[in-house]
């Protein structure tokens, strides 16, 4: 399979991490979203939304949306809980990540790191909602080791992608002891070096 992705994107990296963890063969094709490479006719034919990541399988089928991709790739692995309810809780966190976490944590990071904005230029509402997401994660992880059950699942992989670099978006992780513990454990599970 071919993964069309931007190495700066947590949404793309989570697909790569799942492939590496599960030893799934893939070819990475680097896409520069800021140069409009997702807007070419060839790319839009694969993914009409013009977004990365996009996976093209050997049989010609394509799949987009990071959490849908990792859910498909890991469908028969230990990254998806066997218990149906715990698997549904994993899905609950996957949906929450894209709606209540990524739009704030990842967007603030993009503005500071890639657009060179100053922290004072960030939308206060985005910052507030980003901290609300981190607060919710800390509360959950203070009572349990991972997000869905007692083992690392796709919920952890998905949430790790932007949480581990939240500081790059101006978020202070210093007061989140459970979150920092979890980041280290999931990074180690995936064989990732600690985020700088």
TrEMBL record:
Residues 83-196 form the GST C-terminal domain. Pfam families: GST_C_2 (PF13410), GST_N_2 (PF13409). It comes from the Bacteria. InterPro entries: Glutathione-S-Trfase_C-like, Glutathione-S-Trfase_C_sf, Glutathione_S-Trfase, Glutathione_S-Trfase_N, Thioredoxin-like_sf. One of its GO terms (biological process) is glutathione metabolic process. Keywords: Transferase. One of its GO terms (molecular function) is glutathione transferase activity. Transmembrane segments: none annotated. Homodimer. This is Glutathione S-transferase. The lineage of its organism: Bacteria, Pseudomonadati, Pseudomonadota, Alphaproteobacteria, Hyphomicrobiales.
